[in-house]
Design goal:
The protein is α/β, with parallel strands linked by helices. The chain contains 9 helices and 12 strands. The protein has helices at residues 11-18, 39-49, 70-91, 123-132, 155-165, 182-194, 211-224, 257-263, 270-284, and strands at 2-6, 25-29, 53-56, 94-100, 140-144, 147-148, 168-172, 176-177, 180-181, 199-202, 209-210, 233-237. The longest helix has 22 residues, at 70-91.
């Protein structure tokens, strides 16, 4: 099967390529190869590639920048998705689209199931929700959150850099989610594709953490692997003490029980996957 992966150089795009099954004839592109804001270019490229399946791992993910750059965010997160579904409608192909926990408002006290009402509070969340609405019944939507991967641009690697530079840090403790290893997310996406899933599914690693708890775990695991020289003091701060242009959900846990039941597999604890990622990071040097 001809499979196209967008966002080829991103964390998830790289993992999807690395873990592609033997039946998948994968091609991939990133912004250097095709500008998703250029509709004629994207349309032409999709027609040349003629994929039977698109795994759309590309997105405008600069959450704060999107507040002042919503037009570009919408072009990538909404209009490009519409182009993909339009081209696939003409060829009988399928789109697998990746979305975010930021489509929810964060006011729930229980994990959000796939069918939960959306109420995004940021430009990023709004554009991702609008992109979801461009999908067809035969497509597959996978929501996730707090994604990281060895070698990528993410919270884990930022924390390690800061922990090597500073003796103490302040990290937000009143936002709760589920750290998610891109490698595990990619495995789930391929498994859903092989199971011919359609509709909405959620994938995050098992458990919950605040950003502060996540940072503490990063420090402990990174120190054990020699990635940092000491465990710094990590102070819990509030969102109000660390204001950002975009409003982030205070609680963005996703209910992944539908996904686990559909695939018949077991969830993996986020800290276990963090440890595996950091071992890969240590090998990168």
């Amino acid at each position: 099967m001809r499979v196209l992966v967008t966002g080829a150089n991103g964390q998830l795009g790289g993992a999807l390529q690395r873990l592609a099954p033997a039946w998948a004839e994968v091609t991939a592109f990133d912004v250097e190869d095709c500008d998703l804001t250029d509709v004629p270019m994207l349309t032409a490229r999709l027609k040349v590639e003629a994929p039977e399946l698109i795994l759309n791992a590309a997105a405008y993910t600069a959450v704060d920048k999107a507040e002042s750059d919503e037009g570009v965010a919408r072009a990538i997160n909404v209009e490009a998705v519409a182009v993909m579904t339009e081209v696939l409608a003409g060829t009988g192909g399928k789109l697998v689209h990746v979305s975010t926990d930021y489509v929810f408002d964060g006011t729930s006290s229980a994990p959000y199931p796939p069918e939960a009402p959306r109420n995004p509070q940021s430009a990023y969340g709004r554009t991702k929700a609008e992109g979801e609405d461009r999908l067809r019944a035969e497509d597959l939507l996978v929501r996730t959150g707090w994604v990281y991967e060895a070698g990528g641009a993410n919270f884990v690697r930022t924390m390690i850099r800061l922990m090597n530079e500073r003796e103490e840090l302040g990290v937000v403790a009143d936002q709760v989610g589920a750290p998610t290893w891109a490698t595990g997310l990619a495995r789930t996406i391929w498994a859903l594709v092989e199971s011919q899933a359609t509709g909405i599914f959620h994938h995050c690693d098992d458990g919950a953490a605040s950003w502060h708890e996540f940072a503490v775990a990063i420090a402990e695991e990174a120190y054990a692997l020699g990635l940092i020289p000491r465990i710094p003091a990590i102070h819990a701060i509030t969102t109000a003490e660390y204001p950002t242009p975009a409003q982030r959900p205070a609680f963005s846990l996703l209910d992944c029980s539908k996904t686990r039941a559909f695939l018949g597999d077991r969830p993996v604890a986020w800290r276990d996957n963090l440890r595996l990622m950091l071992k890969e990071e240590a090998k990168l040097g």
